[in-house]
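User: I'm writing a tutorial on reading structure tokens. Could you give me a worked example: one chain, its sequence, then its tokens, then a sentence or two explaining what the tokens reveal?
Assistant: Sure. Here is the example chain.
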Amino acid sequence: MKRIESIVIPLPLAATKAYKDVTLNKYISAERSNRFAAASLKRQATDNCALWVKKAMNDGLDWQWPADLWFHWHVPNNRIDPDNIAFQKKFILDGMQAAKLLPNDDMKHIRRFHDAFMVEPAGHGYVEIKQERSE
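And here are its predicted structure tokens:
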């Protein structure tokens, strides 16, 4: 069986009629307008991430901890600020915990985050997460 080294999750992580993607600004807006809207976005994004993490695990992904995590954000355009995009790692980490890949998202298990941003010419966004073991 081929060993899987990364997790690929399509973007957006969650979408509703009011919010076609989940950036930090949109999440704050949802939180201010209706706490249930923000909770729904978080639940949808976390569940979606857990699904993709489980798929990677079924395909052979087996990570060990502690480690550094690399987030390679492939976005459809450059209109959203990187900090608004990277905020979504909260949902990814929660999804990793829900899928039982990551025991806890504390500093005992995660040493560092690294983010890289690129515009995807095809216009289809995704995030690829890779692990780098730290001893």
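What the tokens reveal: The chain is about 35% helix and 25% strand. The two ends are 27 Å apart (CA to CA).
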